[in-house]
Amino acid sequence: MLDSVSLDQLRTFLAAADEGSFSAAARRLRRTQSAVSESIANLEVQLAVALFDRSGRYPRLTREGTILLADARGVVAGVDGMKARAKGISGGLEAELAAVIDVFFPINVIAEVAREFRDQFPATPLRLYVEALGGVVQPVIDGRASFGLVVSLPTLPAGLVAERVTSIDFVMVASVDHPLATHAGLIPRDELARHVQLVLTDRSDLSAGREFGVMSPSTWRLADLFAKHAFLLSGLGWGGMPLHAVTKDITEGRLVELSIQDVPPGGLKLPMSAVYRNAAPPGPAGRWMIERLKQCPNESQSGGSLTGP
After folding, report:
1. What pLDDT digit, counting tens, does each position of 40-70 carry?
2. Domains (ranges, CATH) in the chain?
3. 65-78 exposure pattern, b = at least 16 Cβ within 10 A, e = fewer
């Protein structure tokens, strides 16, 4: 019976889980609610598992459904990725490659890849945007960019495919003159809450109402990573930065890496993915750039300082 499970059933399962109801899933998939209910019921029979608890007003994922949801996402993402790669390989060369790069990614690595891109595709103009958070994804949704290299968002908008590329190290820092710099031992959350946290804010509406890594009720929000870096150096608050952007400052004593409760030693590893539209995947030039970026994970951990040499 498992061999007869279809991608359509898995997509319907994902839509129902993401939307929170069969009726909302039906609207997203442009089907009737009865068709969605029947598809999921058939999937449950084939899997011999109840995916949803229907006893309440809205269906809720069962414990088994929650576990299998991750598997379903992996299967669908894998097939979508294979289809996108095949379409990119078989398609003609792009007239222009437009891409959006997350501001967290080392720009010196991008510059090196762009130099190689020029040699590989001398007749293809390159257009690069540098944005943060949802600002990386929005041009892809709008069709202004072939793909975006983004720190993975908790929820990816419908119609987009995410392909893991690399990761970056992310650390919490403060100026050497900041009160937190002299705190002995792990810094508890209640101590962090007494100080202003500098937070990178989203220029798009994709993350509206959601917070990423905010630990203090007192925040200053900046839409530019360079401005955040300057504010950190000036002692105006504490906050997280890509390690490659502050390594020189830490080494030369301008910034101090903070040891924070519940944050692993050495900071966090943030996954970075290439995000593109399922219906319009990157062509040969875009596919070349994505694959080239996958080859330099070590470089992405040790890029240069924001302020240069």
Report:
1. 999 999 999 999 999 988 899 999 999 999 8
2. 2-86 (1.10.10.10), 94-166+270-301 (3.40.190.10), 168-269 (3.40.190.290)
3. beebbeebbeebbe
